[in-house]
Amino acid sequence: MDLDLRTQYWDDREARNAFKKFILDIHGLDFSVWESQGFWDDRYTPFSLFNGSEVISSVCVYLLDAIIQGESTRLVQISGVGTHEKWRRKGLSRQLTDEGLKWAHNKHEGVFLFADDEAIPYYQKCGFKPIEEYLEHIKIPSVLAKPGCIPLDPDNQEDLALIYSYAQSRTPISNIFSIMNAKLLMFHVLYTMKNNIYEIPDLNCLIFYKRDNNCLNIFDIVSERMPSFEQLLPYIVRDTDQTVEFHFHTDKLGIEQIETKALAGNNTFVKMGFPLTRPVFPYTSRA
Ligand SMILES: CC(C)(COP(=O)(O)OP(=O)(O)OC[C@H]1O[C@@H](n2cnc3c(N)ncnc32)[C@H](O)[C@@H]1OP(=O)(O)O)[C@@H](O)C(=O)NCCC(=O)NCCS
């Protein structure tokens, strides 16, 4: 059976639907909401093998606008990787990864991905290496809580439009490492962070956070001008909170003494030459 290798086919409705079905089958992820709300990102570039009208193996190369050590650059994230069960171990996924990276050559400064546990041996065979990550955290100083942190609901079109306008004009969260694709952020708004998005109008910012027992996990702060952590904390703190964990580099938050700990479990892999050695991958950079 001849397989047809296709890329940049998002304009072909039938092919795009076949891709969406494939991602639903392989990863249980339904892209319909991201698509119907208008945030589908053309930078998310598919390399797919079609058997007739069906996608049987696919790899996506996501071109990301990044800030690294204060400089604008581009990175590639590999995602949406899979091969239908009966087609596995025939070299198809590796072929697509090679094609994708060949296409992206000269368009970026580094390649990264987050691997599912069972795919680790596959990525190692494809030449990816694990990269050490860490997490920044602090003990919460005593502060008086303030009102003014308003939950937003991405199912409400007004809230969604407000979130997108913040996303489009955001300043990088960190000068060390930030990802700037607004449409990728909107994916997290609609899927992973749906119930964790708040606006603090006094500070003109959005904050994505979640309380896990006595720990505040902050995933992102979206604003034209980054507030300091000292300004932010009163709006989100509760008496029982003890620690804060940040899922991005905190260099712009003005925190004087931050602690770090190794972060395991993300299965983050990079290709040789990745421009950072011990990064915190911003949570909302994951595709
Ligand atoms: C991981 C996956 C994409 C591999 O697809 P594939 O088309 O079978 O991969 P390939 O045939 O191109 O494999 C390339 C190499 O990796 C090896 N490999 C593939 N899967 C492997 C596995 N599970 N364990 C060990 N080695 C593996 C192959 O043997 C081959 O090595 P070789 O060149 O020495 O023969 C596929 O198993 C899959 O879809 N898994 C479920 C979804 C998933 O985990 N996706 C990744 C999410 S991050």
Could you characterize the architecture of this molecule?
The chain has 287 residues and is of the alpha+beta class. 24% of the residues lie in helices and 32% in strands. The protein has helices at 13-27, 32-36, 92-104, 120-125, 157-168, 182-190, 229-236; strands at residues 4-7, 44-51, 54-68, 71-83, 111-114, 129-130, 133-139, 150-151, 177-179, 197-200, 205-212, 215-223, 243-246, 259-263, 268-270. Strands 1, 2, 3, 4, 5, 6, 9 and 15 form an 8-stranded mixed sheet that branches. Strand 10 (197-200) and strand 11 (205-212) form a beta hairpin. The mean pLDDT is 96. The structure holds coenzyme A (COA). Coenzyme A (COA) binds at residues 26, 57, 81-83, 88-94, 115-116, 118-119, 121-122, 125.
Features of this protein?
8-stranded mixed β-sheet; alpha+beta; binds coenzyme A; 2 domains; 287 residues; 7-stranded mixed β-sheet; Aminopeptidase; 7 helices; globular
